[in-house]
């Protein structure tokens, strides 16, 4: 997929080095097609790393995608330069009069806090309410998934006895569902969080269905039957070394983290972890774009309604 992004975005050079076709605004203007409009609400502190990961996942399709990056106006980001944010990100106020074919809401390292105590929670609620009428399909990731389930369906999150970190085996429960089309019956996926969602809370909502789950990590991909919302409790977008970076960071902080499960060969952090979830991650994002964004969204984007 040619991804349409700003020419000077740092992710461009990384993606081009991986032979991913990145289209600048100037070239895209010469093409007589309507690209899919995707907005990424990036709540992660490592914004450049996260935006690169997600753009990489959105690249595996013949469709052209026009990507906007959104930040919270009510939160100050300490880990990303203000210059980068001012150059490449827009606020909800700048985007709320537009409509989008798809939206991705990332995770955030705030899962230990009650939702209402997160400083940008009111603004996030406004965005989630807006998405119902202005975005055709939204994918929520990790804490974003928990926030979306809580806001839209009042499904709570629960503090775990200890952080779940590592890669875990998952099973496909509904193999005919288009989002998991092509998945193996069992597959690996990464998780990194302190809280969880319980399947019994999900199952009381007939409008939701659990597509995949893990006996160790719990419900994994939860779908609204309408196809307008997907909630992914793991981090499919993570790169090979992302969990390693988090583990070494927490060691340096003196938190005393447990080693990520099923991740380092021989539980030796000096060894390179195998990249066991890459194919299913790519398939999940491409299925979402194909079956729930491209094929379902109205041709005239102004026709998107709740």
UniProtKB/TrEMBL annotation:
The active site is at 142 (acyl-thioester intermediate), 235 (proton acceptor), 237. Its EC number is 2.3.1.31. GO terms for molecular function: homoserine O-acetyltransferase activity; homoserine O-succinyltransferase activity. It catalyses: L-homoserine + acetyl-CoA = O-acetyl-L-homoserine + CoA. It comes from the Bacteria. It holds the Pfam family HTS. Pathway: Amino-acid biosynthesis; L-methionine biosynthesis via de novo pathway; O-acetyl-L-homoserine from L-homoserine: step 1/1. GO terms for cellular component: cytoplasm. The keyword Nucleotide-binding does not apply. SUPFAM superfamilies: Class I glutamine amidotransferase-like. Keywords: Acyltransferase, Amino-acid biosynthesis, Cytoplasm, Methionine biosynthesis, Transferase. The record marks 192 as: Important for substrate specificity. The record marks 111 as: Important for acyl-CoA specificity. Its main location: cytoplasm. It is an enzyme of class 2 (transferase). Substrate binds at residues 163, 192, 249. It is found in: Cytoplasm. Transfers an acetyl group from acetyl-CoA to L-homoserine, forming acetyl-L-homoserine. Belongs to the MetA family. This is Homoserine O-acetyltransferase. It comes from Caproicibacter fermentans.
């Amino acid at each position: 997929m040619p991804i349409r992004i700003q020419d000077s975005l740092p992710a461009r050079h990384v993606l081009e080095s991986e032979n991913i076709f990145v289209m600048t605004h100037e070239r895209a203007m010469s093409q007589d097609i309507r690209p899919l409009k995707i907005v990424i609400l990036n709540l992660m502190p490592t914004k450049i790393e996260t935006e690169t990961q997600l753009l990489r996942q959105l690249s595996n399709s013949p469709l052209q995608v026009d990507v906007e990056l959104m930040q919270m106006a009510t939160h100050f980001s300490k880990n990303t330069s203000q210059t980068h944010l001012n150059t490449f990100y827009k606020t909800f106020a700048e985007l709320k009069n537009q409509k989008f074919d798809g939206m991705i809401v990332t995770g955030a390292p705030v899962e230990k806090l009650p939702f209402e105590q997160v400083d940008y929670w009111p603004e996030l609620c406004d965005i989630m309410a807006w998405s119902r009428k202005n975005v055709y399909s939204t994918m929520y990731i990790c804490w974003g998934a928990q926030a979306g389930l809580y806001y839209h369906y009042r499904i709570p999150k629960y503090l775990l006895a200890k952080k779940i970190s590592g890669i875990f085996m998952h099973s496909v429960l509904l193999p005919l569902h288009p989002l998991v089309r092509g998945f193996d019956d069992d597959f690996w996926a990464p998780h990194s969080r302190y809280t969880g969602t319980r399947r019994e809370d999900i199952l009381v909502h007939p409008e939701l269905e659990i597509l995949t789950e893990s006996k160790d990590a719990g419900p994994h991909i939860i779908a609204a039957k309408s196809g307008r919302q997907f909630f992914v409790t793991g981090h499919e977008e993570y790169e090979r070394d992302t969990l390693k970076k988090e583990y070494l960071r927490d060691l340096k902080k003196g938190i005393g983290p447990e080693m990520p499960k099923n991740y380092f060969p021989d539980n030796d952090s000096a060894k390179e972890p195998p990249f066991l979830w890459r194919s299913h991650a790519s398939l999940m994002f491409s299925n979402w774009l194909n079956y729930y964004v491209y094929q379902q969204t109205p041709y005239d984007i102004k026709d998107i309604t709740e």
